[in-house]
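Database export, one record per block. Field names are fixed; values are copied verbatim from the stored entry.
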Amino acid sequence: MVTGIGSLPFTDVDEAIDRVFAVCPEIPVWPQLPRRSFLEDMYVQCMEQVPGVVIDEAEKRVYVDTGSTAGIETFYENVGAGRLEAFSISEQAAPGLYRFLERLPEIEERVQVIKGQLTGPFTMGLGLKDEKGQPILYNDAYFDIIKKALHMKARWMISFIRERFPNKKILVFFDEPFMVSFGSAYVSISKDDVVSLMNDVFSGLDAMTGVHCCGNTDWSVLYRVDTDVINYDAFNFLDTVFYYREELTAFLGRGGILAPGIVPSSEAVLSCSVEDLHRLWLRFGEQVAGIDRNAAWRDWFVTPSCGLGSLSEEQAERALELLAALDQSIRRE
């Protein structure tokens, strides 16, 4: 089966949903449309009404005002009481989610898993800065707020979907593009701390969870995270996830799934063929079988290598065409 990462370059919500339903009806994903509004930016969409977070639509800027304490006490009270409504994502910030759920009955019989997404805590910690331009990851007090906000936003999203489709499985991806920076001189955080902060956000969620990283990283870190799926850029880095054999064996052994991003999310979509991508898929399967023969027979799913929101509409349409064609090619085989 195939699914998307989430972001698309379209500005019309129904057009985006039409494409999702046509290409990945078994694991449909609600569309995130950053070109439609600044509120759909990955650092903005899930930070509404979080204490200290300033969202300036006019200047297209988001940051944390660490001098502000307004709302912090109430925030922690809502976290402790589990008041999910206090952590909702508004329809203004995520119209794709609301319209997607309105229209999902159109394909409900084919749906096996409903997919959503949020920005992951490591990426949010590095990408979201304070008023002085410093990553909020290094401010323990305010980063604790960010982590708890992401956890509660995920719980709200899962509840919001489940109350409408109680019999469907739910999968929530946490997008972690900044994991490509882990281990560099610019990021001073240990492996154990990365695993801990991700587990703080993922733990206790009543759904399957996944981590998406659209580049190369130290995969041994993500294999230790308590998550069900690891999704990566297999088009450019297919072999890299297999370098950490011991950690990968343990991840697969506890039922973990590798989801290869085989369709490129770059201008390369205009020059590659379905046959090229199918060969990558076969290489991926051979590599998995070399680690764990049982895991090689699981129900895998394929994605683009990253979100398509940064592409032109022409490129995104081609990527979706390739994803659908690859799905059919794999099924025929």
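Remark 1: The CA atoms of residues 183 and 190 lie 8 Å apart.
Remark 2: The first strand starts at residue 53 and ends at 56.
End of record.
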